[in-house]
TrEMBL record:
This protein's pathway: Cofactor biosynthesis; adenosylcobalamin biosynthesis
Protein name from the UniProt record: Precorrin-8X methylmutase
InterPro entries hit by this protein: Cbl_synth_CobH/CbiC, CobH/CbiC_sf
Keywords: Cobalamin biosynthesis, Isomerase
All residue ranges annotated as the Cobalamin biosynthesis precorrin-8X methylmutase CobH/CbiC domain in the record: 16-209
Family named by the database record: Belongs to the CobH/CbiC family.
GO-annotated molecular function: precorrin-8X methylmutase activity
Pfam families the UniProt entry points to: CbiC
Entry's Gene Ontology BP terms: cobalamin biosynthetic process
Length: 220
């Protein structure tokens, strides 16, 4: 039995669908205050979530985009708070520059330590990551406790990321952790409110990696 059916979509090519989607986003968002460097990230987030309110709520440290692109091009490591963020990142764009995506949330030593201390794995995973690498990009989309711990470690001068992507979703401490992040003098990309999530964090990394690749094309 032939399971194919006739249909007449607007377009059938993935690249054409994406292009059309971005055109619709630009038309619908209208006037905005984002810079030319920031807007591609905003569009990528809206494209991923279909949420214009979330896109408009994004906030950028003045050096965030530049710092993120530079870190990727330097092959710096990318640390994620959960496996879902890691899975959503286009790995080949990162490894192209020699980078690596790391997530410690399931590591046996992290699980064991979290149980011993009666705390979250996210907190221990951030401690492990910051003890092993210098700089890098920290992409947090799920756990507010991970973002709060990273902020604490920065204040203690035990961590100095090149960029923090802090967009955890939720009701407990999600909004507050983002507010604390914006008080730091460290490059960050975050958003206001409870919204966020792993797809958002991954989308921001993917937008930055595309921009990093575009630099190569501009040089050629």
């Amino acid at each position: 039995m032939d399971f194919f059916v006739e249909f007449s979509p607007i377009t059938t090519q993935p690249q054409e669908i994406e292009l059309k989607s971005f055109e619709m986003i630009e038309e619908e968002i209208g006037n905005h205050s984002f810079s030319d460097a920031q807007f591609p990230i905003v569009k990528r987030v809206i494209h991923t979530t279909a949420d214009f309110e979330l896109g408009r709520s994004l906030r950028f440290h003045p050096e965030a985009v530049k710092a993120g692109i530079f870190a990727i091009r330097q092959g710096k490591k990318i640390v994620t708070d959960v496996e879902m963020v890691k899975a959503g990142i286009h790995q080949s764009r990162i490894t192209h520059f020699g980078g690596q995506i790391i997530c410690h949330i399931r590591d046996e030593d992290v699980v064991k330590k979290a149980k011993e201390l009666n705390t979250t794995r996210s907190i221990i995973a951030m401690q492990k990551a910051t003890s092993q690498i210098e700089g890098g990009i920290f992409a947090i989309g799920n756990a507010p406790t991970a973002l709060l711990e990273l902020i604490r470690l920065i204040k203690l001068e035990k961590a100095k990321p090149d960029l923090i992507i802090g967009v955890p979703v939720g009701f407990v401490s999600a909004k507050e952790s983002k507010e604390e992040l914006q008080k730091l003098d460290v490059p960050y990309i975050t958003n206001q409110g409870r919204k966020g999530g792993s797809p958002v964090a991954a989308a921001i990394v993917n937008a930055l990696s595309l921009m990093a690749q575009q630099v190569d094309k501009d040089v050629e």
